[in-house]
Hints:
The protein is of the alpha+beta class. It has a single domain (3-146), classed as 2,3-Dihydroxybiphenyl 1,2-Dioxygenase, domain 1. 27% of the residues lie in helices and 41% in strands. It is built from 4 helices and 8 strands, in the order βαβββαβαβββα. It has helices at residues 15-24, 67-75, 89-98, 136-146, and strands spanning 3-11, 29-36, 43-50, 53-60, 78-86, 103-110, 116-120, 130-134. It has an 8-stranded mixed beta sheet with strand order 2-3-4-1-5-8-7-6. Belongs to the methylmalonyl-CoA epimerase family. Residues 4-135 form the VOC domain. Keywords: Metal-binding.
Amino acid sequence: MEKTLDHIGVAVRHLDDSIEFYTKVLGAELIDRYRSEKVGVESEIAVMNVNGTTTELLSPTNNTTSPIARFIKQKGKGVHHIAYRVNHLDQAIEELNKQGIRVMEETRRINKHGRRLIYLNPADTGGTIIEYCDYPNLRGENDAKEN
């Protein structure tokens, strides 16, 4: 199955400072800013576009339960995950299972933009946090255009 880079997630301590750096130094455009208090997310997210490349800035909203807070505590701020877009998330998960790569089922969700996502188990990826995602609404539009 084809995979393309969708975005890079960056763990930050101070979202406003990071947005300022991305906009002023990198020339990024702030696409969206939202908060998710869902268990296992508990983050404020700023979606930045730098010349067609998406970076998600992730700041914890709960310093005891947020996975971003745990990440910063263990590894410090910086690149948290790399997300790859796949055509069909469920089929991609089936392929991973056949290859013996585990996914973290508790991370499966749909974000506010309709992106379906799941994280691969870092124990099976050499320690890198990798997200697989798809956009079923866009896929439906693209499928209709092909017919």
